[in-house]
Design goal:
alpha/beta, globular, six-stranded parallel β-sheet, 28% strand, binds NADP nicotinamide-adenine-dinucleotide phosphate, single chain, 10 helices, 316 residues
């Protein structure tokens, strides 16, 4: 049996992605072998493929390198000393972040402590979509310490992080405003947010008295959104490229501001999977690509207009 993996052969456009075969790794002590059903694609995968950011810098001498941090699948073998997982269980994880990667693989041996059990009522598709984006959403909101009744503005509510963030903020009983293009207005309104079309006019012309800004866009859009804020508002700027600039400007205006780097936390993923299982959280999946269509999947991610998440079907 082969272990097909998608690798970055050299830094560049989507065409540098290739499928390679390797051996199926034996689980070491404390590890389980997972047959990966789905891996998800995140903006960082595309950035790293292009040779940008710290994951690219750290792995530049290790090409071909397997990207991917989100997986869901089934445990098919258990190493010695494993206590919580057994053969046949469905698991998901935010794995190998940020340096090791490896998610775009058909088989992975992983430490059991990196994995969460997927409840029966949660699909492996939803479980694979959740880890990196879901935990970024949860951690951004936790940094902002949102409270019931506060007015929260989330830029890019239709994206992988945004659609989860706005549902968590709504569950915390915040009044949630979000920006999106016209195509996503109905979708985000259905989730319960006040959706504002950024293509029509800058958000600063449409909204005021915001207590918390969750910036998932950066740059000009984030600078404009600072004009919507109350005195003493809190800002969390998530895109690493412009976070420093946005935070500096926000602090000059008297706001509390911070950037962030998501931190994998299996217990937090357990909670999010539970929220999905009881219907408190809905994961949106725009499309599932076969491994052969990895270039199209990266091209879609690069448009910057994916609704929810896109996945790779690792067994087809
Ligand atoms: N610091 C960290 O640890 C960390 C972790 C995760 C992600 N990130 C970063 O956070 C950002 C968001 O990640 P993501 O996974 O959610 O990305 P994503 O899924 O690619 O976001 C796509 C969404 O962005 C929306 N969008 C694009 N331009 C917009 C604009 N000007 N105003 C409002 N919405 C806009 C699109 O909606 P429309 O189609 O309606 O325009 C689309 O639904 C990325 O920059 C990512 O690299 C950082």
């Amino acid at each position: 049996m082969d272990n097909k993996q998608i690798v970055i052969t050299q830094f560049g456009g989507p065409e540098v992605l290739a499928i390679q075969s390797s051996v199926i790794p034996e689980p070491l002590e404390g590890e389980v072998l997972v047959k990966v059903a789905f891996a998800s694609i995140n903006p960082i995968d595309v950035k790293t493929r292009a040779g940008l950011g710290w994951a690219a810098a750290q792995n530049k001498d290790k090409l071909p390198w397997v990207p991917g941090y989100d997986i869901a699948g089934q445990v098919i073998k258990v190493g010695s000393g494993v206590t919580t997982l057994a053969e046949g269980m469905n698991v998901a994880g935010f794995i190998g972040f940020p340096i090791r990667g490896g998610g775009y693989s058909q088989y992975l041996s992983l430490p059991e402590k990196e994995l969460s059990i997927v409840p029966d009522s949660v699909t492996l598709e939803a479980a694979a979509a959740l880890p990196l984006a879901g935990q970024t959403a949860a951690q951004a909101l936790s940094k902002a310490q949102i409270k019931e009744g506060e007015r929260v503005l989330i830029l890019a509510g239709a994206g992988g992080v945004g659609h989860i963030a706005l549902q968590i903020a709504l569950a915390a009983k915040a009044e949630v405003y979000t920006t999106c293009s016209e195509a996503n207005l109905d979708y985000l309104a259905t989730l319960g947010a006040h959706a504002i079309n950024y293509q029509f006019a800058p958000v600063s012309q449409r909204l005021e008295a915001v207590d918390v800004l969750i910036d998932l866009v950066g740059g000009e859009a984030a600078l404009d959104a600072l004009k919507c804020l109350n005195d003493h508002a809190r800002v969390v700027s998530v895109p690493t490229l412009s976070a420093e600039l946005i935070c500096e400007k926000a602090k000059m205006l008297g706001f509390e501001a911070t950037g962030m780097l998501v931190d994998p936390n299996p217990e937090q993923l357990d909670t999010m999977l539970y929220m999905v299982s009881v219907g408190l959280l809905k994961v949106e999946i725009q499309h599932i690509y076969s491994m052969d269509h990895i270039c199209q999947a990266h091209e879609q991610m690069e448009t910057g207009h994916t609704r929810g998440k896109i996945l790779l079907d690792m067994q087809n």
